[in-house]
Amino acid sequence: MILVTGASGKTGRRVIDRLTEAGHVHRAVGRSSVPPFAWERPETWSAVLAGARAAYIVHPELAATGAPAVIEEFAAAAAAAGVERLVLLSGRGETNAELAERAVQNSGLAHTVVRASWFAQNFTEGLLHPAAGGGAFALPAGTVREPVVDADDIADVVTAALTDSRHDGRLYDVTGTRSFTFDEMAAEISRAAGRPVQYAPVGLDDFRELLIPHVGPDQAEMFVQLCAEVFDGRNEKPGEGVQEALGREPRDFTAFCQAAAATGVWSW
Ligand SMILES: NC(=O)c1ccc[n+]([C@@H]2O[C@H](COP(=O)([O-])OP(=O)(O)OC[C@H]3O[C@@H](n4cnc5c(N)ncnc54)[C@H](OP(=O)(O)O)[C@@H]3O)[C@@H](O)[C@H]2O)c1
Hints:
It is built from ten helices and ten strands. By secondary structure, it is an alpha/beta fold.
């Protein structure tokens, strides 16, 4: 049985689809699953870990200060429950995410780290979707470039790592093939959606004020700190994780936009 945390999220949902299609028994968990699973409630962990041989770890805020300690504790609980393999979703260039990676790498279990860049699905399923629907999305990203990645590619890599020991011990730097400024991403979305969507570069303080009504002050602060850390150019160069894990090229952002527009997700 394969445990999937964050099962309702952008990558978890896609991993579940792939495991189901390939006939792997799995347990999809989150705060409203039965039994429930919550990162801040360790008393919920043993029930979901029982009987699992592998686990996909998605923490909602791996960049947060307390996350590495929680991942370390969870990895120890997984080992105690007899889990053999851990696959961690991580973020590129994030100090706390790297500490969490080390906790998994030092767990004594077989492990794979899937270190991802900015998700294309932030524009279709995440916080930026409604903003883009209003014609503009704001980020404190200036003119920095991101090798934006399709969550379907992440899910393909994660599913391979969960089910095939050839990925044990690997760290995959999972990105798209090309890097775009957020202005260029907005132009791609506009072309595909058939109506103008603009990128509005903002400062960190303005971004915090924009976020607070949506996610509250604590999460807003975490996002601001994360943006301050990663939007400095450190992540501009594409990685090779999809190619290394799957032996194929990642899906292109232009193609992603065309496919997304065809589903009607941008027909606001
Ligand atoms: N989005 C990006 O561009 C990006 C890029 C690189 C790395 N990452 C990393 O990917 C991870 C996921 O981020 P995301 O924004 O894409 O989120 P997501 O996977 O779309 O959603 C978060 C998932 O976590 C679950 N969750 C939320 N709070 C929880 C809690 N307290 N206990 C247990 N489960 C909880 C949610 O399920 P329920 O609500 O059902 O509990 C949901 O399934 C983060 O660690 C992030 O740093 C994201």
